[in-house]
Specification:
Blueprint lengths: L6 H11 L4 E2 H10 L10 H16 L5 E5 L2 E4 L30 E7 L12 E3 L7 E2 L5 E7 L2 E8 L4 H7 L11 E6 L18 H16 L14 E2 L1 E3 L2 H17 L2
Parallel strand pairs: 4-10
Antiparallel strand pairs: 1-3, 2-3, 4-9, 5-6, 5-11, 7-8, 7-9
Length: 261
């Protein structure tokens, strides 16, 4: 089995093999699919973005990467011998590091109610990419939506009671029989180990407006908006089914089979 590459070497290999610049999420997905790394942590996309952005911020024009658009990067061609000093279409690196967690740190779209074992503190498990360390968003705070099919039937907020508790309450209140999916937008940052951080004391108003617009675009999917909420400086998490559900199904199957003997 080949030795696992460092994040930097894995990023370099993916960008070198690409004929065009890639978004950091695409770079991450390629690293995973090529098996360049198996130790991914809970936030592999954020790690890739941080590695590239930190290099650009520290080294400037001497960095091995150039930012060609928001979140999109290419190798810095002028680092090699007899290469053009500036790649066509590449803009000058921005002085600021792109912030992974501006307002909304994480979100999940159309998660299935049936994939969760409901209790007072359920496990709301999500992954940045398949293979990444799952994160439990039970204690996340922010905004959530309940759906009946694809129709939004309820919008709520989580402040004094976290996301897991609020959703559990909707399994036993007047909404209990009316929803089958939910989406959520969280404010607490997520560490590489999968732990939720603390809520920021203040939010920059110039970042708040794009974040609110992006939440509405993601949640409502208006037909006249041609693209998703690209200004949402967050990472979407894919739902992971609570393992206890499968264990319960196996147990029930065994008990049913034994009862027929």
């Amino acid at each position: 089995m080949s030795k696992e590459l460092t994040w930097k070497k894995a990023i370099d290999k993916v960008l070198a093999a690409s004929s065009e610049p890639l978004h950091y999420k695409e770079i991450t997905e390629q690293i995973i699919s090529d098996g360049l790394r198996t130790s991914l942590g809970a936030t592999p996309a954020a790690t890739v973005n941080a590695q590239i952005s930190a290099s650009i911020k520290k080294l400037g024009e001497e960095a091995p990467y150039v930012r060609v658009a928001k979140g999109t990067f290419a190798l810095n061609q002028k680092a090699g011998p007899k290469m053009p000093t500036k790649k066509p279409g590449v803009v000058k690196p921005e002085p600021e590091e792109e912030e992974q967690y501006a307002i909304v740190s994480s979100f999940g779209m159309f998660w299935r109610r049936e994939a969760i074992e409901w209790m007072a503190t359920p496990k709301l498990l999500g992954m940045q990419q398949i293979g990444a360390t799952p994160v439990d968003f039970t204690k996340q705070i922010g905004i959530y939506l309940l759906y009946d099919g694809r129709e939004v039937i309820y919008v709520g907020r989580t402040t004094d009671r976290p996301l897991g508790r609020r959703l559990y309450e909707h399994t036993i209140d007047r909404m209990s029989a009316r929803w089958d999916r939910f989406s959520w937008f969280g404010l607490l940052p997520v560490s590489d180990s999968g732990a939720l951080g603390k809520l920021s004391a203040t939010f920059d108003a110039t970042k708040m407006i794009p974040a609110l617009e992006a939440i509405l675009i993601e949640a409502l999917e208006p037909r006249q908006n041609r693209k998703r909420g690209d200004d949402l400086a967050a990472v979407e998490y894919l739902q992971k089914e609570d393992p206890s559900i499968k264990k319960k199904m196996v147990k029930d199957t065994l008990e049913t089979a034994l009862s027929k003997l």
